[in-house]
């Protein structure tokens, strides 16, 4: 079975009246192996069906990995900053509490006998 990413690219460009030679050379320049391109061309020729017209899409790069979005990076940074601020406030509250109550803030004084 042919690589569906290449098949889709070929179909979209054929719909946009791009010649097969141009499509093939663009895929080769993007690093796709010739045998995968030939398989995809055969599959497109056998099916004869093309998807509805879309905008022309640049040739996908062979082995190209999708990167992490900028929004995700920003969200992680914001969460880290919020966590650090939360820790700072929590430590500040605890140290202020210990300053106000030097005995450690014990609710029951230790020298009072326990009554059961």
Structure characterization notes:
The structure is a single chain. The protein is mostly helical and about 120 residues long. It has 2 domains: about 1-65, no CATH class; about 65-105. The chain has 4 helices and no strands. It has helices at about 5-15, 20-30, 35-45, 70-100. Helix 1 (about 5-15) packs across helix 2 (about 20-30) and helix 1 (about 5-15) crosses helix 3. It is rod-shaped, with a radius of gyration of 32 Å. It starts with a helix and ends in a 16-residue tail after the last helix. Residues about 50-55 have low confidence and may be disordered.
Shape: rod-shaped
Average pLDDT over all residues = 79
Low-confidence stretches are: 50-54
- Based on DSSP secondary structure assignment, what is the total number of beta strands? 0
Discrete helix count: 4
Keywords:
single chain; 116 residues; mainly alpha; 4 helices; rod-shaped
Summarize the helices and strands and which ones pair or pack.
Layout: H1 4-15, H2 20-29, H3 34-47, H4 70-100
Helix pairs in contact: 1-2, 1-3
Question: Outline of this structure?
Answer:
The chain is mostly helical and 116 residues long.
């Amino acid at each position: 079975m042919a690589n569906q990413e290449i098949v889709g690219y070929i179909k979209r460009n054929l719909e946009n009246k791009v010649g097969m030679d141009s499509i093939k050379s663009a895929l080769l320049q993007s690093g796709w192996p010739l045998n995968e391109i030939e398989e995809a061309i055969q599959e497109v020729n056998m099916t004869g069906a093309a998807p509805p017209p879309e905008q022309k899409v640049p040739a996908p790069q062979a082995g190209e990995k999708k990167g992490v979005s900028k929004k995700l990076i920003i969200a992680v940074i914001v969460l880290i900053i919020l966590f650090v601020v939360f820790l700072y406030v929590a430590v500040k509250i605890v140290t202020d509490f210990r300053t106000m109550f030097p005995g450690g803030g014990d609710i029951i004084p230790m020298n009072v006998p326990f009554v059961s």
